[in-house]
């Protein structure tokens, strides 16, 4: 029996401005990538030149059979200096939205996807009480100019991401200490990097608060207050636009004796933020794998478990569980705003997509209002500190020529979208 999806289902893919556009020279990440001794494997440079080739990329999405596109506006392009808005950047994103309309691609716009203007970091970054107001001012300007062409907005991407990053860093540090002790050379390099970072921003290193940096409880609340301030502003200036946020959610599981630790992780990573989401129109789910807890804490994937290029366990069935427990708590329409796999084996990407979508379809069949699925990502792109080494894309990019080549997974996923059903 053919497993169909709801009528009007949004079939799409996602990107983030800094990872695909190239030359975001006013962003904090651009500065960090170019420091001597940078922790980035390589700078983003031209990335995949999406800032110039966006129309070609949107046309290709439509040709493949997709009907929606989640992408982000780059704050540092639009407001390169505080209070100074760049009309050229606004006009560019207006053209991107026009291209979406021309090719019948429904846009889902993210207003902040990890990168921030350098001036914001110098002004206290994501630990400053002034940041919510500054973010809302940026959102107001954007939505006044472009809101009539934006049906869905995600204010902030993975607003809870710093919690997961802190846990991953702690685990890696524990593993390194257990295996080889303290690596003095590595520590010296990091100290040199942070010294260079402080010099570049004109701040003591401990006062540099980028979005993906270390986060205090106050900083976490500031991020979610920024979401609330943005939502209020967007409602006022663009009332027809539906507003939501995206969170990074693992499928949190427990073995006997690990139930309390799993419940604690769920509270830390998701449930504590529910009050900030009450006024939203939809919720953006982002899931890639599972985390399993036992009596002594997190249990890494088995040595023989299939893993992705990111070191995650291959576990597409986690998406269904995450959608179910997210909806149980938020009681709002769900859009899967990111789900995918970093792999050089495209057959495994196809398998991942099929298994993930089986879970999405099962949720929809049970009456959960899942409105869309945005695969991460549209193209192979710049994976932050890891450079261009990780391949998440449905479309391969030869960066020497910026030639796009859809992978078999792109055609496979496109066929599902065209038929609105699992094949």
UniProtKB/TrEMBL annotation:
Pfam families: Glyco_hydro_1. Signal peptide: none annotated. This is beta-glucosidase. Belongs to the glycosyl hydrolase 1 family. One of its GO terms (molecular function) is beta-glucosidase activity. Keywords: Glycosidase, Hydrolase. The active site is at 338 (nucleophile). Its EC number is 3.2.1.21. It is an enzyme of class 3 (hydrolase). It comes from Paenibacillus montaniterrae. One of its GO terms (biological process) is carbohydrate catabolic process. One of its GO terms (cellular component) is cytosol. The keyword Phosphoprotein does not apply. The lineage of its organism: Bacteria, Bacillati, Bacillota, Bacilli, Bacillales. PANTHER family: GLYCOSYL HYDROLASE, LP05116P.
């Amino acid at each position: 029996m053919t497993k169909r999806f709801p009528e009007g289902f949004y079939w799409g893919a996602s990107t983030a401005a800094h990872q695909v556009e190239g030359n975001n020279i006013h962003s904090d990440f651009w500065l960090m990538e170019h420091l001597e001794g940078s922790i980035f494997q390589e700078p983003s440079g031209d990335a995949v030149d999406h800032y110039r080739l966006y129309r070609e990329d949107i046309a290709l999405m439509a040709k493949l059979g997709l009907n929606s596109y989640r992408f982000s506006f780059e704050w540092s392009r639009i407001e390169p200096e505080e209070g100074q808005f760049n009309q050229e950047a606004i006009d560019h994103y207006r053209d991107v939205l026009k291209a979406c309309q021309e090719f019948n691609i429904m846009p889902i716009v993210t207003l902040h996807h990890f990168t921030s203007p350098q001036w914001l970091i110098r002004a206290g970054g994501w630990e400053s009480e002034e940041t919510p107001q500054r973010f809302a001012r940026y959102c107001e300007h954007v939505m006044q100019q472009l809101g009539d062409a934006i049906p869905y907005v995600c204010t902030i991407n993975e607003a809870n991401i710093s919690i997961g990053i802190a846990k991953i860093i702690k685990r890696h540090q524990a593993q390194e200490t257990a295996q080889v002790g303290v690596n003095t050379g590595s520590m010296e390099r990091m100290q040199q990097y942070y010294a260079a970072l402080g010099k570049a921003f004109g701040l003591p290193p401990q006062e540099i608060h980028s979005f993906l940096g270390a986060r205090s409880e106050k900083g976490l609340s500031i991020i979610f207050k920024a979401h609330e301030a943005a939502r209020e502003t967007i409602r006022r200036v663009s009332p027809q636009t539906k507003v939501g946020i995206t969170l990074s959610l693992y499928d949190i599981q427990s073995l006997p004796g690990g139930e309390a630790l799993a419940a604690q992780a769920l509270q830390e990573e998701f449930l504590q933020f529910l009050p900030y989401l009450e006024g939203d129109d939809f919720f953006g789910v982002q899931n890639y794998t599972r985390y399993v807890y036992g009596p002594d804490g997190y249990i890494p994937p088995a040595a023989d478990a299939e893993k992705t290029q990111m070191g995650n366990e291959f576990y597409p069935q986690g998406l269904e569980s995450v959608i179910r427990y997210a909806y149980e708590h938020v009681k709002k329409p769900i859009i899967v705003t990111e789900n995918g796999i970093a792999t050089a084996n495209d057959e495994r990407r196809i398998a991942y997509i099929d298994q993930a979508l089986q879970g999405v379809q099962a949720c929809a069949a049970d009456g959960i209002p899942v409105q869309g699925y945005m695969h991460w990502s549209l193209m192979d792109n710049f994976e932050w500190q890891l450079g261009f080494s990780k391949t998440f894309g449905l479309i391969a990019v030869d960066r020497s020529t910026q030639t796009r080549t859809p992978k078999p997974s792109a055609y496979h996923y496109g066929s599902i979208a065209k038929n609105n059903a699992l094949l």
